[in-house]
Amino acid sequence: MFYFEGEWYWGIDRLCHLEARLASIGLDSLPKGAAQIAPRRDMRLIAFPKGGPRLVIDYWFSFRSPYSWISFPRMKKLAHHYDAELRLRFILPMVMRGLPVPRVKRMYIMLDTKREAELAGIPFGTVVDPVGAGAERALAVLHRAMKLGRGEDFAELGQRAAFADGIDLASDAGLYDVARRAGLDEAAVKAALGDESWRPVAEENRKALFAAGLWGAPTFRVNDMPAHWGQDRFWALEEDILGILEGAKP
Hints:
48% of the residues lie in helices and 10% in strands. The protein has 250 residues and is of the alpha+beta class. The longest helix is centred in the middle third of the chain and has 18 residues, at 103-120. This is DSBA-like thioredoxin domain-containing protein. InterPro entries: DSBA-like_thioredoxin_dom, GST_Kappa/NadH, Thioredoxin-like_sf.
């Protein structure tokens, strides 16, 4: 952990924020415009020949995780760029799985997500916590949406609703509005809310996440390789993808 004048920086992936802040108050000894000492690492979206090996990305996420929200648009972008199948592995929020999240950690996560969202150009900040009914209802609809080919759309819009648009997923008005914009009609939502089959799927996804050696969201891996945790690890996932593609060259 790093701490400077009221702001915490958790891990080496946040040194770019600390460095920028120090520079903004005139404490940078490097010439103006010089490259950062600890720049943020991100995906590069390298051009690659088509027709390579099949890529399958397992992506664990939660409707209550702000990090999941700011990772989702970028995950879609990465998967689509490399023609990978994006396997959505939804899980219940940590606190609904019996894992404690202290208040001080929750506050840090929200503040950290805000600065990471700004860096990535993703809207964030008007929040209605979907924990409880909101998360469960969203997962029920997502389970149905995936069967109808609208899973990615609903997952993205649902997370945006909770963390950027201030929409309450526990309310009928909020949930039905998000579903409609994702291409789901009222009948599909009603059927989803009356169907509990999403619960064993969420539990199966949780067990698979633990088997992969991790526990939180977002987590992802490609072709059953070691998993990566965190919205700041897309560069690592991309390196795995490029390694697979490079190894498949004749």
